[in-house]
Amino acid sequence: xxxxxRGAGTVIRKDLLAEGRAGEVLRxxxxxxxxxxxxxxxxxxxxxxxxxxxxxxxYWAIVLLFGILVTxxxxxxxxxxxxxxxxxSGVQPASIFLGRTAAGSVxxxxxxxxxxxxxxxxxxxDGIAGWPWLFVLAALVAxxxxxxxxxxxxxxxxxxxxxxxxxxxxxxxxxxxxxxxTETTDLLGSGQGIIRWxxxxxxxxxxxxxxxxxxxxxxxxxxxxxxRVMSHDESLHTFYSWEYSEGRGYQHTPxxxxxxxxxxxxxxxxxxxxxxxxxxxxxxxxGVAAIALVWVxxxxxxxxxxxxxxxxxxxxxxxxxxxxxxxxxAYVVLLGLLMFWAVFRYFETRETRWLYLLSIALALHFxxxxxxxxxxxxxxxxxxxxFAWRLYDEQWRSEGLRRLFLAGV
Length: 409
What we know:
The protein is mostly helical. The chain has helices at about 1-20, 25-45, 50-75, 80-90, 95-125, 135-155, 160-175, 175-190, 195-220, 230-245, 260-270, 275-295, 300-315, 315-320, 330-350, 350-365, 370-390, 400-409.
């Protein structure tokens, strides 16, 4: 946890210092944004009724267009050598993503706050009712656009046309943010309720943060899988998987746990060729899937609880290590989550499909590792306790029988 935040702090300082030296936001982007706000009144004359009506939309459209440049600038300025230097310094890919998003949010918020007085002077000279809400709105828009821009920049790294592809990815996905920000500002001016639009912005930011967590999970689980040499355990698993992929058969031995991993690694060899990296692809996929699967538990953890849990799984040293290590642990976590999800949903719906999912999760777990006995025992203890509680809570013919049952339990 401390390493992730320390690395993110390093990236934030680097990006803000680079901006301080180059001054692209303060000296170039902000003046051009202000100029764009000034040109619109000249093009449609000074009809204040019209300007007041279109002002919020123009302001947020300019924030979107120039904000794309702000959020993509830092990643575009990074050379491959700079990215390699960050990684050699011990800064994790997830830290780079988090730091870049935070630095972009700060610069975007600065851009919005400097341009806001210009918008008020030219488009709403009488002021805006409920103006303190504009600070909340600006912060939500800054976080949303920065996260979206960082996601697009990360996904397009290494592409020749990234300077064209990244804005095309951001612009359509930012439409809900632009719509919610415009409607909120317009409703503030008329004194109407804005909560539903604020909630839309919050939901959009949460969705982007979840997408960011998944992108960070993919980066941390798949980046440079081949650089670390195979350990003794891994060498055994990979050797017998390779023999199986070559058609030499497979014979199970409890020395190396269940057969599922050998089949998955052999499949990876068949699809992508045999190498240290391809041997680790199945566990990396399981590690990413476990983080994504946490989201289905929001019914019981709440959305904030699910996001925090996914974030903790993302930065967990145990989960990160074993999601890049040819062993069974990453599969166990994924199958354990599937097992409990199936049980909880069956209690809610009583639909048989959840029993099928439970059977599949348990069968695969038993084919993975001996921890399946522990997980099944924990589940049975839980179910026995729940069954006893429900029996105790039923109507009994006499209180004595209830107490006798409790004593027997």
